[in-house]
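Q: Got a minute? One more chain.
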Amino acid sequence: MIQKSYIFIVYIFISLSSLSQNNVNDISPKKAAIYSAIIPGSGQIYTKKYWKIPILYSGLITSYYFINTNSSKYNEYKEAAILSNHTGENQLGHSYSELILLKDYYRRNRDVSYFTFIGVYILNIVDASVNAHLFNYDISDDISLKIQPFTDLKNSG
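A: Always. Here it is, folded:
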């Protein structure tokens, strides 16, 4: 099952790489944002910023890992606190009040991990849009201002 999902992801990125074959003037910030909203990283492919994709997925995978870890610990300590409250015995080597503190700690960490995941996802969309806006930005050393007089050829005769 995991191999099929990897193959699917690779297939999606290869098919999205055709998006990066467009003209320089065809880069649309709206398209980049929509692509990144549908599949994270596809807006970076569209704007030809390939080096950002591993960073993006590192943030998403790391926050997802912490969501899973903190959720499992939260559920473990919550069940232990319920058992400790009903039986009056220590569970997992902790008293009832310690179990409540640990449960709250892991719930808070899980919630922060959710916010981190959402933040990285939104940052992915904003980054793709900003890259599309700045795609044609001139960064040459020529900063001269070319002011020339305007002559109206229609009224000169």
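A: The longest helix spans residues 96-133.
Q: Perfect, thanks.
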